Amino acid sequence: MENKGTPVNTGGVEAAAERKQRTGRITRNFFLHMHAPRVHIHAMKPSYTFGLGLITGFLFLIMLFTGVILMIYYTPSVESAYRSVKDIVYIVPGGRIIRNMHRWASQGMLIVVWLHLLRVFYTGSYLGNRSLNWVIGVVLMILILLSNFSGYLLPWDQLAYWAVTIGSNIAASARELTDLLGITVAFDPGGFLKKLLIGGETVGQPALSRFFAMHVIFLPLSMLVLMGVHFWRIRKDGGLSRPAVFAGEKGAENKLYAWPVLMWTELAILLGVVAVILFIALVADAPLLEEANPAFPENPAKSPWYFLGIQEMVSYSAFAGGLLVPLLYLVFLFSIPYRDREERYVGVWFSGAEGARVTGRSAVFALLLVIVQLFVMERFGWLRDWFPGISQWLVMLINPATITGLCFILVAEWIRRNHGSTRLAAMGLFTMSFVALVVFTVVGIWFRGPNWEFFWSVNQWPVQ
Amino acid sequence: MKRRNFLERAAVTLVSLAGVAAAFSYLRQFFPRLAGEKKRIVLGDYRKFPVDTYTFLEGHNIFVYRDHEGIKAVSAVCTHLGCILEKSTDGFECPCHGSCFSDVGKVLSGPAPRNLSWYEVYRAADGKIVVNPSRTVGPGEKFNIS
After folding, report:
1. d(CA B122, nearest CA chain A) in Å
2. Which one of A87, A129, A167, A277 has the fewest CB atoms closer than 10 angstroms to its CB?
3. What is the ipTM of this complex?
4. Whole-number percent of chain A with pLDDT over 90
Protein backbone atom coordinates (compact mmCIF):
# COMPACT_ATOMS: atom_id res chain seq x y z
CA MET A 1 0.00 0.00 0.00
CA GLU A 2 1.61 3.32 -1.10
CA ASN A 3 1.07 6.66 0.62
CA LYS A 4 0.95 8.59 -2.60
CA GLY A 5 -0.50 12.05 -2.37
CA THR A 6 -0.66 12.13 1.40
CA PRO A 7 1.15 14.96 3.13
CA VAL A 8 4.44 13.88 4.64
CA ASN A 9 5.90 15.58 7.67
CA THR A 10 8.25 18.26 6.45
CA GLY A 11 9.62 18.99 9.87
CA GLY A 12 8.88 22.37 11.40
CA VAL A 13 7.32 23.85 8.29
CA GLU A 14 3.78 23.08 9.32
CA ALA A 15 1.92 25.50 11.45
CA ALA A 16 1.57 24.63 15.10
CA ALA A 17 -2.19 24.84 14.79
CA GLU A 18 -2.30 22.13 12.18
CA ARG A 19 0.01 19.91 14.21
CA LYS A 20 -2.29 20.31 17.16
CA GLN A 21 -5.31 19.49 15.06
CA ARG A 22 -3.73 16.34 13.69
CA THR A 23 -2.55 14.94 17.00
CA GLY A 24 -5.82 16.07 18.57
CA ARG A 25 -7.82 13.79 16.35
CA ILE A 26 -6.04 10.84 17.92
CA THR A 27 -5.94 11.92 21.52
CA ARG A 28 -9.55 13.08 21.71
CA ASN A 29 -11.03 9.84 20.38
CA PHE A 30 -11.06 6.66 22.46
CA PHE A 31 -10.97 4.36 19.42
CA LEU A 32 -8.41 6.28 17.40
CA HIS A 33 -6.22 6.40 20.47
CA MET A 34 -5.16 2.90 19.55
CA HIS A 35 -2.59 4.65 17.40
CA ALA A 36 0.15 6.94 18.58
CA PRO A 37 -0.36 10.44 17.17
CA ARG A 38 2.77 9.95 15.13
CA VAL A 39 4.07 6.69 13.72
CA HIS A 40 7.59 5.72 12.75
CA ILE A 41 8.20 5.63 9.01
CA HIS A 42 9.57 2.06 9.22
CA ALA A 43 6.26 0.79 10.60
CA MET A 44 4.57 2.09 7.46
CA LYS A 45 6.85 0.18 5.12
CA PRO A 46 4.49 -2.21 3.30
CA SER A 47 7.20 -4.82 2.75
CA TYR A 48 7.82 -5.04 6.48
CA THR A 49 4.39 -5.94 7.90
CA PHE A 50 2.35 -6.50 4.73
CA GLY A 51 -0.51 -5.25 6.91
CA LEU A 52 -1.19 -8.84 7.97
CA GLY A 53 -2.25 -8.18 11.55
CA LEU A 54 -4.54 -5.43 10.39
CA ILE A 55 -6.09 -7.65 7.71
CA THR A 56 -6.76 -10.33 10.36
CA GLY A 57 -8.51 -7.71 12.46
CA PHE A 58 -10.65 -6.57 9.53
CA LEU A 59 -11.55 -10.16 8.68
CA PHE A 60 -12.64 -10.53 12.30
CA LEU A 61 -14.96 -7.55 11.82
CA ILE A 62 -16.48 -9.26 8.77
CA MET A 63 -16.95 -12.38 10.93
CA LEU A 64 -18.81 -10.35 13.56
CA PHE A 65 -21.06 -8.56 11.08
CA THR A 66 -21.99 -11.64 9.07
CA GLY A 67 -22.12 -13.82 12.20
CA VAL A 68 -24.84 -11.71 13.80
CA ILE A 69 -27.07 -12.16 10.75
CA LEU A 70 -26.45 -15.91 10.65
CA MET A 71 -27.16 -16.11 14.36
CA ILE A 72 -30.65 -14.65 14.13
CA TYR A 73 -31.72 -17.19 11.50
CA TYR A 74 -29.88 -20.21 12.83
CA THR A 75 -31.50 -22.61 15.34
CA PRO A 76 -29.08 -24.52 17.55
CA SER A 77 -31.12 -27.72 17.83
CA VAL A 78 -30.36 -31.15 16.43
CA GLU A 79 -33.78 -31.36 14.78
CA SER A 80 -33.76 -28.03 12.98
CA ALA A 81 -30.15 -26.83 12.73
CA TYR A 82 -29.59 -28.32 9.29
CA ARG A 83 -32.89 -27.00 7.93
CA SER A 84 -32.23 -23.54 9.34
CA VAL A 85 -28.91 -23.43 7.47
CA LYS A 86 -30.74 -24.47 4.31
CA ASP A 87 -33.19 -21.64 4.99
CA ILE A 88 -30.31 -19.20 5.28
CA VAL A 89 -28.99 -20.33 1.91
CA TYR A 90 -32.27 -20.61 0.01
CA ILE A 91 -34.83 -18.33 1.67
CA VAL A 92 -33.15 -15.45 3.50
CA PRO A 93 -32.47 -12.68 0.94
CA GLY A 94 -28.74 -12.55 0.39
CA GLY A 95 -28.29 -15.24 3.02
CA ARG A 96 -26.14 -17.35 0.77
CA ILE A 97 -23.71 -14.46 0.28
CA ILE A 98 -23.61 -13.74 4.01
CA ARG A 99 -22.91 -17.39 4.82
CA ASN A 100 -20.25 -17.58 2.10
CA MET A 101 -18.59 -14.43 3.42
CA HIS A 102 -18.60 -15.85 6.94
CA ARG A 103 -17.02 -19.06 5.74
CA TRP A 104 -14.39 -17.52 3.48
CA ALA A 105 -13.48 -14.76 5.93
CA SER A 106 -12.91 -17.42 8.61
CA GLN A 107 -10.57 -19.35 6.35
CA GLY A 108 -8.92 -16.13 5.25
CA MET A 109 -8.39 -15.28 8.91
CA LEU A 110 -6.59 -18.57 9.48
CA ILE A 111 -4.32 -18.10 6.50
CA VAL A 112 -3.54 -14.47 7.22
CA VAL A 113 -2.99 -15.01 10.94
CA TRP A 114 -0.44 -17.71 10.12
CA LEU A 115 1.32 -15.39 7.67
CA HIS A 116 1.26 -12.75 10.41
CA LEU A 117 2.82 -15.24 12.83
CA LEU A 118 5.53 -16.04 10.28
CA ARG A 119 6.22 -12.35 9.69
CA VAL A 120 6.48 -11.57 13.39
CA PHE A 121 8.70 -14.57 13.99
CA TYR A 122 11.11 -14.11 11.09
CA THR A 123 11.57 -10.40 11.81
CA GLY A 124 12.34 -11.21 15.45
CA SER A 125 9.49 -9.00 16.61
CA TYR A 126 8.87 -11.05 19.74
CA LEU A 127 12.21 -10.01 21.21
CA GLY A 128 12.76 -7.54 24.02
CA ASN A 129 9.70 -6.14 25.73
CA ARG A 130 7.40 -7.55 23.06
CA SER A 131 7.42 -11.07 24.52
CA LEU A 132 4.05 -10.65 26.26
CA ASN A 133 2.41 -9.53 23.03
CA TRP A 134 3.79 -12.59 21.27
CA VAL A 135 2.12 -14.79 23.89
CA ILE A 136 -1.19 -12.94 23.50
CA GLY A 137 -0.87 -13.39 19.74
CA VAL A 138 -0.40 -17.15 20.07
CA VAL A 139 -3.45 -17.32 22.37
CA LEU A 140 -5.44 -15.41 19.73
CA MET A 141 -4.30 -17.88 17.08
CA ILE A 142 -5.56 -20.76 19.25
CA LEU A 143 -8.88 -18.97 19.77
CA ILE A 144 -9.24 -18.53 16.00
CA LEU A 145 -8.67 -22.27 15.53
CA LEU A 146 -11.23 -23.03 18.25
CA SER A 147 -13.74 -20.67 16.63
CA ASN A 148 -13.38 -22.56 13.39
CA PHE A 149 -13.67 -25.89 15.17
CA SER A 150 -16.80 -24.86 17.07
CA GLY A 151 -18.28 -23.19 13.99
CA TYR A 152 -18.22 -26.20 11.77
CA LEU A 153 -20.41 -28.32 14.05
CA LEU A 154 -23.25 -25.84 13.75
CA PRO A 155 -24.62 -26.72 10.25
CA TRP A 156 -25.09 -30.29 11.55
CA ASP A 157 -24.13 -31.90 8.27
CA GLN A 158 -22.02 -35.02 7.79
CA LEU A 159 -18.75 -33.07 7.92
CA ALA A 160 -19.86 -31.36 11.13
CA TYR A 161 -20.90 -34.53 12.90
CA TRP A 162 -17.91 -36.70 12.07
CA ALA A 163 -15.28 -34.01 12.35
CA VAL A 164 -16.48 -33.18 15.86
CA THR A 165 -16.82 -36.87 16.78
CA ILE A 166 -13.20 -37.31 15.80
CA GLY A 167 -12.19 -34.03 17.48
CA SER A 168 -13.87 -34.87 20.78
CA ASN A 169 -12.26 -38.31 20.77
CA ILE A 170 -8.89 -36.71 20.19
CA ALA A 171 -9.58 -34.77 23.39
CA ALA A 172 -10.39 -38.10 25.06
CA SER A 173 -7.30 -39.77 23.64
CA ALA A 174 -5.31 -39.13 26.81
CA ARG A 175 -7.05 -42.42 27.66
CA GLU A 176 -4.65 -44.15 25.29
CA LEU A 177 -1.91 -43.24 27.78
CA THR A 178 -3.90 -43.76 30.99
CA ASP A 179 -5.14 -47.14 29.67
CA LEU A 180 -1.58 -48.26 29.12
CA LEU A 181 -0.70 -47.15 32.65
CA GLY A 182 -3.87 -48.84 33.89
CA ILE A 183 -5.09 -45.79 35.80
CA THR A 184 -8.09 -44.68 33.69
CA VAL A 185 -10.55 -45.78 36.37
CA ALA A 186 -8.96 -43.50 38.97
CA PHE A 187 -7.62 -40.68 36.81
CA ASP A 188 -9.24 -39.92 33.46
CA PRO A 189 -8.26 -36.50 32.10
CA GLY A 190 -9.31 -37.61 28.60
CA GLY A 191 -12.87 -38.36 29.66
CA PHE A 192 -12.95 -35.14 31.69
CA LEU A 193 -11.98 -33.05 28.68
CA LYS A 194 -14.42 -34.82 26.38
CA LYS A 195 -17.25 -34.30 28.85
CA LEU A 196 -16.40 -30.61 29.10
CA LEU A 197 -16.35 -30.30 25.33
CA ILE A 198 -19.47 -32.23 24.28
CA GLY A 199 -21.32 -32.80 27.56
CA GLY A 200 -21.78 -36.52 26.96
CA GLU A 201 -20.38 -39.69 25.45
CA THR A 202 -21.38 -39.02 21.85
CA VAL A 203 -22.03 -35.87 19.84
CA GLY A 204 -25.66 -34.80 20.28
CA GLN A 205 -27.80 -31.91 21.47
CA PRO A 206 -25.57 -31.09 24.49
CA ALA A 207 -22.57 -30.85 22.17
CA LEU A 208 -24.43 -28.59 19.74
CA SER A 209 -25.61 -26.27 22.55
CA ARG A 210 -22.11 -26.05 24.00
CA PHE A 211 -20.49 -25.38 20.66
CA PHE A 212 -23.09 -22.75 19.84
CA ALA A 213 -22.49 -20.90 23.13
CA MET A 214 -18.75 -21.18 22.64
CA HIS A 215 -18.95 -19.98 19.05
CA VAL A 216 -21.21 -16.96 19.48
CA ILE A 217 -20.34 -15.71 22.99
CA PHE A 218 -17.29 -17.09 24.69
CA LEU A 219 -14.78 -17.13 21.85
CA PRO A 220 -15.67 -13.85 20.08
CA LEU A 221 -15.77 -12.01 23.40
CA SER A 222 -12.40 -13.42 24.47
CA MET A 223 -10.93 -12.55 21.09
CA LEU A 224 -12.31 -9.02 21.19
CA VAL A 225 -10.75 -8.39 24.61
CA LEU A 226 -7.42 -9.97 23.69
CA MET A 227 -7.30 -8.13 20.36
CA GLY A 228 -7.75 -4.89 22.27
CA VAL A 229 -4.84 -5.78 24.52
CA HIS A 230 -2.81 -6.99 21.52
CA PHE A 231 -3.20 -3.66 19.69
CA TRP A 232 -2.70 -1.59 22.82
CA ARG A 233 0.54 -3.46 23.61
CA ILE A 234 1.95 -2.42 20.22
CA ARG A 235 1.83 1.21 21.37
CA LYS A 236 2.95 0.29 24.86
CA ASP A 237 5.97 -1.58 23.50
CA GLY A 238 7.06 1.44 21.48
CA GLY A 239 5.30 0.90 18.18
CA LEU A 240 6.00 -1.83 15.66
CA SER A 241 9.42 -3.42 15.91
CA ARG A 242 12.19 -1.89 13.87
CA PRO A 243 15.88 -2.62 13.30
CA ALA A 244 18.49 -1.44 15.77
CA VAL A 245 19.61 1.40 13.46
CA PHE A 246 16.43 3.25 14.38
CA ALA A 247 16.52 2.30 18.06
CA GLY A 248 16.68 5.03 20.62
CA GLU A 249 16.26 7.78 18.05
CA LYS A 250 14.21 10.67 19.33
CA GLY A 251 13.98 12.93 16.31
CA ALA A 252 10.64 13.66 14.66
CA GLU A 253 12.01 13.55 11.12
CA ASN A 254 11.35 9.83 10.73
CA LYS A 255 7.77 10.00 11.94
CA LEU A 256 4.49 10.53 10.17
CA TYR A 257 1.16 11.74 11.51
CA ALA A 258 -1.13 8.79 12.11
CA TRP A 259 -3.91 11.06 10.96
CA PRO A 260 -4.28 11.19 8.03
CA VAL A 261 -1.41 9.16 6.56
CA LEU A 262 -1.86 5.87 8.44
CA MET A 263 -5.62 6.02 8.76
CA TRP A 264 -6.31 6.48 5.08
CA THR A 265 -4.02 3.54 4.34
CA GLU A 266 -5.90 1.45 6.86
CA LEU A 267 -9.25 2.43 5.41
CA ALA A 268 -8.02 1.45 1.98
CA ILE A 269 -6.93 -1.95 3.31
CA LEU A 270 -10.34 -2.43 4.95
CA LEU A 271 -12.10 -1.70 1.67
CA GLY A 272 -9.74 -4.05 -0.16
CA VAL A 273 -10.37 -6.87 2.32
CA VAL A 274 -14.14 -6.51 2.10
CA ALA A 275 -13.97 -6.39 -1.69
CA VAL A 276 -11.88 -9.57 -1.90
CA ILE A 277 -14.09 -11.51 0.52
CA LEU A 278 -17.24 -10.29 -1.23
CA PHE A 279 -15.85 -11.37 -4.59
CA ILE A 280 -14.93 -14.86 -3.34
CA ALA A 281 -18.35 -15.16 -1.68
CA LEU A 282 -20.03 -14.35 -5.00
CA VAL A 283 -18.15 -16.94 -7.01
CA ALA A 284 -17.69 -19.81 -4.48
CA ASP A 285 -20.33 -21.40 -2.26
CA ALA A 286 -19.58 -22.61 1.26
CA PRO A 287 -20.03 -26.38 1.26
CA LEU A 288 -23.00 -28.05 2.94
CA LEU A 289 -23.08 -31.86 2.92
CA GLU A 290 -26.02 -34.14 3.64
CA GLU A 291 -27.58 -33.95 7.08
CA ALA A 292 -25.61 -35.61 9.87
CA ASN A 293 -26.05 -39.37 10.03
CA PRO A 294 -24.65 -40.90 13.24
CA ALA A 295 -24.70 -44.38 11.68
CA PHE A 296 -22.50 -43.82 8.63
CA PRO A 297 -19.34 -41.74 8.52
CA GLU A 298 -18.28 -40.33 5.19
CA ASN A 299 -15.48 -42.29 3.63
CA PRO A 300 -12.99 -40.69 3.79
CA ALA A 301 -14.21 -38.60 6.74
CA LYS A 302 -12.03 -35.56 6.28
CA SER A 303 -12.04 -32.61 8.63
CA PRO A 304 -11.66 -29.09 7.15
CA TRP A 305 -8.31 -28.59 5.42
CA TYR A 306 -6.66 -26.65 8.26
CA PHE A 307 -7.00 -29.64 10.60
CA LEU A 308 -5.91 -32.26 8.09
CA GLY A 309 -2.28 -32.00 9.26
CA ILE A 310 -3.43 -33.10 12.71
CA GLN A 311 -5.74 -35.71 11.20
CA GLU A 312 -2.80 -37.14 9.30
CA MET A 313 -0.86 -37.35 12.56
CA VAL A 314 -3.72 -38.98 14.52
CA SER A 315 -3.81 -41.68 11.86
CA TYR A 316 -0.51 -42.86 13.40
CA SER A 317 -1.64 -42.53 17.02
CA ALA A 318 -4.53 -40.59 18.52
CA PHE A 319 -2.64 -39.51 21.63
CA ALA A 320 0.78 -38.84 20.12
CA GLY A 321 -0.48 -37.16 16.95
CA GLY A 322 -3.54 -35.42 18.36
CA LEU A 323 -2.39 -34.29 21.80
CA LEU A 324 1.28 -34.87 22.56
CA VAL A 325 2.91 -33.38 19.47
CA PRO A 326 0.47 -30.43 19.07
CA LEU A 327 0.83 -29.58 22.77
CA LEU A 328 4.62 -29.69 22.55
CA TYR A 329 4.37 -27.41 19.53
CA LEU A 330 2.24 -24.91 21.49
CA VAL A 331 4.66 -25.06 24.43
CA PHE A 332 7.43 -24.28 21.96
CA LEU A 333 5.51 -21.33 20.45
CA PHE A 334 4.75 -19.88 23.88
CA SER A 335 8.30 -20.31 25.14
CA ILE A 336 10.09 -18.75 22.15
CA PRO A 337 10.46 -15.22 23.58
CA TYR A 338 11.58 -16.56 26.95
CA ARG A 339 14.27 -18.88 25.65
CA ASP A 340 15.63 -16.58 22.96
CA ARG A 341 16.58 -13.07 24.11
CA GLU A 342 19.06 -12.01 21.46
CA GLU A 343 17.70 -8.51 21.01
CA ARG A 344 20.29 -7.44 18.48
CA TYR A 345 18.20 -9.24 15.87
CA VAL A 346 14.99 -7.24 16.30
CA GLY A 347 13.41 -6.06 13.07
CA VAL A 348 15.78 -7.80 10.63
CA TRP A 349 14.29 -10.37 8.28
CA PHE A 350 15.72 -13.83 9.13
CA SER A 351 18.28 -12.07 11.37
CA GLY A 352 20.57 -11.60 8.38
CA ALA A 353 22.31 -13.89 5.89
CA GLU A 354 23.36 -16.63 8.36
CA GLY A 355 19.80 -16.89 9.66
CA ALA A 356 18.39 -17.07 6.14
CA ARG A 357 20.80 -19.94 5.42
CA VAL A 358 19.77 -21.81 8.59
CA THR A 359 16.10 -21.25 7.73
CA GLY A 360 16.54 -22.58 4.19
CA ARG A 361 18.48 -25.66 5.29
CA SER A 362 16.01 -26.42 8.10
CA ALA A 363 13.15 -26.25 5.62
CA VAL A 364 14.84 -28.68 3.23
CA PHE A 365 15.76 -31.03 6.08
CA ALA A 366 12.20 -31.10 7.46
CA LEU A 367 10.75 -31.64 3.99
CA LEU A 368 13.02 -34.64 3.34
CA LEU A 369 12.59 -36.12 6.82
CA VAL A 370 8.80 -36.16 6.66
CA ILE A 371 8.58 -37.30 3.04
CA VAL A 372 11.05 -40.18 3.60
CA GLN A 373 9.04 -41.42 6.57
CA LEU A 374 5.75 -41.20 4.67
CA PHE A 375 7.38 -43.05 1.78
CA VAL A 376 8.55 -45.85 4.09
CA MET A 377 5.12 -46.00 5.71
CA GLU A 378 3.21 -46.28 2.44
CA ARG A 379 5.69 -48.56 0.70
CA PHE A 380 6.75 -50.93 3.47
CA GLY A 381 4.17 -50.38 6.21
CA TRP A 382 4.90 -49.44 9.79
CA LEU A 383 5.47 -51.23 13.13
CA ARG A 384 2.10 -52.96 13.41
CA ASP A 385 2.35 -54.34 9.86
CA TRP A 386 5.75 -55.87 10.65
CA PHE A 387 5.05 -57.10 14.19
CA PRO A 388 1.28 -57.69 14.51
CA GLY A 389 1.33 -58.27 18.26
CA ILE A 390 3.34 -55.16 19.06
CA SER A 391 2.70 -53.20 22.27
CA GLN A 392 0.53 -50.07 21.99
CA TRP A 393 3.34 -48.19 23.76
CA LEU A 394 5.55 -48.58 20.70
CA VAL A 395 2.74 -47.73 18.26
CA MET A 396 2.13 -44.56 20.26
CA LEU A 397 5.74 -43.51 20.77
CA ILE A 398 7.40 -44.51 17.49
CA ASN A 399 5.65 -43.02 14.46
CA PRO A 400 6.30 -40.26 11.93
CA ALA A 401 4.78 -37.61 14.21
CA THR A 402 6.94 -38.35 17.26
CA ILE A 403 10.11 -39.18 15.30
CA THR A 404 9.76 -35.91 13.39
CA GLY A 405 9.29 -33.93 16.61
CA LEU A 406 12.25 -35.56 18.34
CA CYS A 407 14.57 -35.07 15.34
CA PHE A 408 13.61 -31.39 15.18
CA ILE A 409 14.41 -30.84 18.86
CA LEU A 410 17.79 -32.55 18.46
CA VAL A 411 18.65 -30.56 15.34
CA ALA A 412 17.64 -27.30 17.05
CA GLU A 413 19.91 -28.14 19.98
CA TRP A 414 22.71 -28.89 17.53
CA ILE A 415 22.19 -25.50 15.82
CA ARG A 416 22.32 -23.78 19.21
CA ARG A 417 25.66 -25.37 20.05
CA ASN A 418 27.16 -25.08 16.60
CA HIS A 419 26.20 -21.46 15.96
CA GLY A 420 26.07 -20.38 19.59
CA SER A 421 22.78 -18.57 19.05
CA THR A 422 19.36 -19.21 20.57
CA ARG A 423 17.79 -17.06 17.85
CA LEU A 424 19.13 -19.33 15.10
CA ALA A 425 18.07 -22.44 17.03
CA ALA A 426 14.57 -21.01 17.44
CA MET A 427 14.44 -20.18 13.73
CA GLY A 428 15.52 -23.70 12.84
CA LEU A 429 12.92 -25.34 15.08
CA PHE A 430 10.17 -22.94 14.01
CA THR A 431 10.93 -23.46 10.32
CA MET A 432 11.18 -27.25 10.59
CA SER A 433 7.93 -27.63 12.52
CA PHE A 434 6.08 -25.27 10.18
CA VAL A 435 7.30 -27.13 7.10
CA ALA A 436 6.31 -30.47 8.68
CA LEU A 437 2.86 -29.12 9.49
CA VAL A 438 2.47 -27.99 5.88
CA VAL A 439 3.59 -31.36 4.51
CA PHE A 440 1.24 -33.31 6.80
CA THR A 441 -1.59 -30.97 5.81
CA VAL A 442 -0.88 -31.29 2.09
CA VAL A 443 -0.79 -35.09 2.39
CA GLY A 444 -4.08 -35.02 4.31
CA ILE A 445 -5.75 -32.78 1.73
CA TRP A 446 -4.63 -34.29 -1.56
CA PHE A 447 -3.12 -37.72 -0.96
CA ARG A 448 -5.52 -39.49 1.37
CA GLY A 449 -8.58 -41.34 0.17
CA PRO A 450 -11.07 -43.93 1.44
CA ASN A 451 -9.92 -45.70 4.62
CA TRP A 452 -7.21 -43.04 4.82
CA GLU A 453 -5.13 -44.91 2.27
CA PHE A 454 -2.53 -43.18 0.16
CA PHE A 455 -3.56 -42.17 -3.37
CA TRP A 456 -1.69 -40.03 -5.87
CA SER A 457 -4.91 -38.40 -7.00
CA VAL A 458 -8.66 -38.45 -6.44
CA ASN A 459 -9.05 -40.21 -9.80
CA GLN A 460 -7.52 -43.35 -8.30
CA TRP A 461 -10.10 -43.62 -5.52
CA PRO A 462 -12.03 -46.87 -5.77
CA VAL A 463 -15.56 -46.48 -7.10
CA GLN A 464 -18.16 -47.27 -4.47
CA MET B 1 -0.93 -9.78 66.22
CA LYS B 2 -2.96 -6.63 66.51
CA ARG B 3 -6.71 -6.81 66.40
CA ARG B 4 -6.89 -4.75 63.24
CA ASN B 5 -4.37 -7.02 61.47
CA PHE B 6 -6.25 -10.07 62.57
CA LEU B 7 -9.55 -8.80 61.25
CA GLU B 8 -7.93 -7.77 57.98
CA ARG B 9 -6.36 -11.18 57.46
CA ALA B 10 -9.47 -13.03 58.49
CA ALA B 11 -11.51 -10.98 56.01
CA VAL B 12 -9.07 -11.58 53.15
CA THR B 13 -8.91 -15.33 53.90
CA LEU B 14 -12.69 -15.70 54.10
CA VAL B 15 -13.29 -13.75 50.91
CA SER B 16 -10.68 -15.83 49.07
CA LEU B 17 -12.22 -19.06 50.33
CA ALA B 18 -15.66 -17.90 49.26
CA GLY B 19 -14.20 -16.99 45.85
CA VAL B 20 -12.64 -20.42 45.42
CA ALA B 21 -15.88 -22.12 46.46
CA ALA B 22 -17.90 -19.97 44.06
CA ALA B 23 -15.49 -20.63 41.21
CA PHE B 24 -15.57 -24.36 41.90
CA SER B 25 -19.35 -24.59 41.99
CA TYR B 26 -19.58 -22.44 38.86
CA LEU B 27 -17.15 -24.63 36.94
CA ARG B 28 -18.91 -27.74 38.26
CA GLN B 29 -21.92 -26.70 36.16
CA PHE B 30 -20.04 -27.62 33.01
CA PHE B 31 -19.91 -31.29 33.99
CA PRO B 32 -23.37 -32.87 33.92
CA ARG B 33 -24.10 -36.05 35.86
CA LEU B 34 -24.25 -38.77 33.28
CA ALA B 35 -25.60 -42.24 33.81
CA GLY B 36 -22.61 -44.57 33.61
CA GLU B 37 -24.74 -47.57 32.67
CA LYS B 38 -25.70 -47.99 29.05
CA LYS B 39 -29.27 -49.03 28.35
CA ARG B 40 -29.98 -52.65 27.55
CA ILE B 41 -31.17 -53.38 24.04
CA VAL B 42 -34.09 -55.75 23.61
CA LEU B 43 -33.61 -57.63 20.34
CA GLY B 44 -36.83 -59.58 20.67
CA ASP B 45 -37.10 -62.66 18.55
CA TYR B 46 -33.65 -63.77 17.38
CA ARG B 47 -35.12 -65.36 14.24
CA LYS B 48 -35.57 -61.97 12.60
CA PHE B 49 -31.78 -61.74 12.22
CA PRO B 50 -30.52 -63.42 9.06
CA VAL B 51 -28.27 -66.43 9.65
CA ASP B 52 -24.46 -66.13 9.30
CA THR B 53 -24.66 -62.35 8.96
CA TYR B 54 -23.58 -59.28 10.89
CA THR B 55 -26.51 -56.90 11.32
CA PHE B 56 -25.89 -53.26 12.28
CA LEU B 57 -28.15 -51.95 15.05
CA GLU B 58 -28.68 -48.31 14.17
CA GLY B 59 -28.79 -45.94 17.11
CA HIS B 60 -26.90 -48.41 19.29
CA ASN B 61 -23.79 -48.76 17.12
CA ILE B 62 -23.54 -52.49 17.65
CA PHE B 63 -23.14 -55.40 15.24
CA VAL B 64 -25.23 -58.48 16.04
CA TYR B 65 -24.16 -61.78 14.52
CA ARG B 66 -26.33 -64.85 14.37
CA ASP B 67 -25.66 -68.40 13.16
CA HIS B 68 -27.44 -71.68 13.79
CA GLU B 69 -25.87 -72.14 17.22
CA GLY B 70 -26.18 -68.75 18.76
CA ILE B 71 -25.97 -65.01 18.74
CA LYS B 72 -23.21 -62.53 19.67
CA ALA B 73 -22.85 -58.75 19.80
CA VAL B 74 -19.80 -56.55 19.19
CA SER B 75 -19.25 -52.82 19.39
CA ALA B 76 -19.26 -51.12 15.96
CA VAL B 77 -17.34 -48.10 17.24
CA CYS B 78 -13.66 -47.81 16.34
CA THR B 79 -11.50 -47.67 19.49
CA HIS B 80 -9.32 -45.06 17.79
CA LEU B 81 -11.52 -42.00 17.31
CA GLY B 82 -15.09 -43.25 17.41
CA CYS B 83 -16.04 -43.71 13.75
CA ILE B 84 -18.53 -46.44 12.82
CA LEU B 85 -16.79 -49.54 11.46
CA GLU B 86 -17.63 -51.30 8.23
CA LYS B 87 -17.83 -55.08 7.95
CA SER B 88 -15.05 -56.31 5.68
CA THR B 89 -14.75 -59.82 4.29
CA ASP B 90 -12.87 -61.23 7.27
CA GLY B 91 -13.24 -58.62 9.99
CA PHE B 92 -13.98 -54.95 10.53
CA GLU B 93 -12.50 -51.85 8.95
CA CYS B 94 -12.61 -48.19 9.95
CA PRO B 95 -13.32 -45.70 7.14
CA CYS B 96 -11.76 -42.78 9.03
CA HIS B 97 -8.14 -43.78 9.64
CA GLY B 98 -7.97 -47.31 8.27
CA SER B 99 -7.73 -49.40 11.45
CA CYS B 100 -8.44 -53.08 10.74
CA PHE B 101 -9.85 -55.61 13.21
CA SER B 102 -10.07 -59.39 12.89
CA ASP B 103 -13.40 -61.23 13.04
CA VAL B 104 -12.98 -61.52 16.81
CA GLY B 105 -12.27 -57.79 17.08
CA LYS B 106 -8.50 -57.96 17.55
CA VAL B 107 -6.51 -54.98 16.21
CA LEU B 108 -4.67 -56.06 13.05
CA SER B 109 -3.34 -52.79 11.68
CA GLY B 110 -3.72 -49.04 11.99
CA PRO B 111 -3.73 -46.72 14.99
CA ALA B 112 -6.54 -48.31 17.07
CA PRO B 113 -5.31 -48.71 20.67
CA ARG B 114 -7.74 -51.40 21.88
CA ASN B 115 -9.56 -54.49 20.64
CA LEU B 116 -13.30 -54.27 20.06
CA SER B 117 -15.60 -55.04 23.01
CA TRP B 118 -18.03 -57.97 22.86
CA TYR B 119 -21.19 -57.55 24.86
CA GLU B 120 -23.16 -59.91 27.00
CA VAL B 121 -26.23 -61.45 25.31
CA TYR B 122 -28.88 -63.28 27.33
CA ARG B 123 -32.47 -64.46 27.23
CA ALA B 124 -34.79 -62.46 29.45
CA ALA B 125 -37.54 -64.10 31.52
CA ASP B 126 -40.08 -63.32 28.81
CA GLY B 127 -38.01 -65.22 26.23
CA LYS B 128 -36.71 -62.17 24.39
CA ILE B 129 -33.02 -61.86 23.53
CA VAL B 130 -31.30 -58.89 25.20
CA VAL B 131 -27.89 -57.23 24.65
CA ASN B 132 -26.29 -55.62 27.69
CA PRO B 133 -23.62 -53.13 26.55
CA SER B 134 -22.41 -52.40 30.07
CA ARG B 135 -21.06 -55.95 30.49
CA THR B 136 -18.35 -57.25 28.21
CA VAL B 137 -17.57 -60.89 27.47
CA GLY B 138 -14.62 -62.70 25.89
CA PRO B 139 -13.78 -62.08 22.20
CA GLY B 140 -16.37 -63.66 19.94
CA GLU B 141 -18.26 -65.28 22.82
CA LYS B 142 -21.63 -66.56 21.67
CA PHE B 143 -24.91 -66.98 23.52
CA ASN B 144 -26.25 -70.43 22.72
CA ILE B 145 -29.84 -70.19 21.64
CA SER B 146 -30.81 -73.85 22.00
Report:
1. 25
2. A129
3. 0.86
4. 58
